[in-house]
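--- STAGE predict ---
source: upstream dedup step, 1 unique chain passed
mode: sequence only
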Amino acid sequence: MGLPFMTISAAINSMIRADGSPRYAMGSMVVGALINVVLDPVFIFVFDMGVKGAAIATVLGQVASFLVSVVYLPRFKTVKLEKSAFVPNGKTCGNILVFGLSSFITQFAITIVMALTNNLLAVYGATSIYGAEIPLTATGIVMKVNQIMIAILLGIATGTQPIIGFNYGARNYNRVRTAMEISLIASEVVSVVGFLIFQFAPMSVVSLFGAEEGLYNEFAVMAFRIFLMLCPLTGFQTVAAVYLQAVGKPVKSAILSLARQIIFFIPAALILPRFLGVEGVLWTGPVADGLAFLLSLVFLAGERSHLQRSHRAQEAGLN
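--- STAGE serialize ---
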């Protein structure tokens, strides 16, 4: 029931950011999240509604974010809403689809990867000392934690997207390069911190999801250390994909989004477990991360050279 409110709110939220009001955009999301968090225990425990109560709290949070976002519509600074703006335009819709393709692929591919990984863990886990259940549960935790880190990285990349897009369109290439570099540094800091936790203190994360012992802890630690071995490269890939999207290179951006999740991950997931068993499923993570990083490095190096040439040409023209 909350799906229409969630999708419309997400769309308007992006428009609000692009309109130069990132604080308001953040506020609309925070309001919904806080309402959800506060009402969850009230509905679940006070009114004894269980999972149904949690669902209602989620929907109410989505409705709240929607209402706060809609209130902003008459306050747009850069555009004036008229009736004609609500009539679909083929060219505009086509541009939206093209430039949104990368983000769509990223989200959709995550679902495919999780489904494939779960099936492989069940099959190869059943033939190992861990059984089918332990690999599924432990790797599920790894995936969830990895998604949190990716969400932070996407936040950094998406936050710089309007800055990069605006300055690229204004031919202010020096600012584009600076914004890209700041985004890369910030994302790498987050990725490296995550890497240090996953490699040297994985049990501190595992224990947040419930205390276990024996084979479960053993596999969970191994899963964190292997699957997220090259997570410092994730920040670079994320920024590269969003940057290419911001400067009007949707094809390259879509290729990068496909590279990690589909092009490299799926073949590795189908091949490695045949030789390494259930542990081979875990090694698909660093293999896909490493290959996707090399591809993003090539794309981003080319774009950086292009920015430098454009900046020099611009300066020469001014002189």
